[in-house]
Please model this.
Amino acid sequence: MADKIVVLNGGRIEQVGAPMTLYNEPASPFVAGFIGSPKMNLFEGDVAAREGCKVYGIRPEHRSLSTTDGKWRGTVRHIERLGADTIAHLSVDGLESLVVRCPGDQEISVGATVFASPVVGKAHRFLTETNAARGTSPELPLDL
Model:
């Protein structure tokens, strides 16, 4: 992989930087969704407004999943078993959908009720479509 990446959006430069800088500190929702697989969960509307931003983002790997308790209650719609990782696609009230990366051996099944919780300090708050609140804000809780 290159030591610097230029992310273009419609011929316009969105961000230039090292791969991990773009991953950890995306300058815009476009870059946040472009870097990482699966892409970052991005929410607008009421969810973002409660977080004081235009677009609120959290990566699938910055969530934990439990069958007993957690912040957001959801239903498992789809599971991708990838060996070391499992990608769970959830339906959560108030959100269109939520993607969570969890350990590959985590016991979950389609239709199950699960609880997703954020990893504190890993949220990305974008003030506009082209402006980040500079990556994570460890002092702010991740409330949806």
